[in-house]
């Protein structure tokens, strides 16, 4: 029963990631695209977490950490670029 619920959750996360990816491609503004890409990263973390629970392993823990760090750094960098027009301060 628990594996069935996890499998359904994987399907829902996959559909949500697909919808967010479409939003990232077609979003009307750059801010919508940033939020959609950040959401895809969060959904990917959840997807891998549920996959770890289904396989009863801790082998993908590093993958979750790296995806989380990359999603956070990417979102901050893009937001800073949109706010100021450059990534690095010259001061």
Point out poorly predicted stretches.
none
Count of distinct strands: 0
How far do the termini sit from each other? 58 Å
Q: Enumerate how many helices there are, as a single number.
A: 3
The proportion of residues in beta strands is under 5%
Helical content, roughly? over 70%
Mean pLDDT: 88
Largest sheet: none
Oligomer: single chain
Name the helix and strand elements from N-terminus to C-terminus, one letter apiece: HHH
Radius of gyration: 16 Å
Instruction: Identify the overall geometry.
Output: flat
Structural class: mainly alpha
Keyword list:
91 residues, flat, mainly alpha
Task: Compose a concise summary of this entry.
The radius of gyration is 16 Å and the shape is flat. The chain has three helices and no strands. The chain has helices spanning 2-26, 30-55, 61-84.
């Amino acid at each position: 029963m628990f594996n069935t619920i996890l499998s359904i959750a994987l399907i829902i996360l996959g559909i949500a990631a697909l919808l967010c990816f479409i939003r990232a491609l077609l979003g009307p503004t750059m801010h919508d695209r940033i939020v959609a890409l950040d959401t895809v990263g969060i959904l990917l973390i959840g997807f891998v977490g549920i996959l770890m629970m289904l396989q009863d392993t801790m082998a993908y823990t590093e993958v979750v950490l790296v995806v989380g760090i990359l999603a956070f750094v990417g979102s901050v960098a893009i937001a800073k670029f949109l706010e100021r027009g450059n990534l690095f301060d010259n001061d």
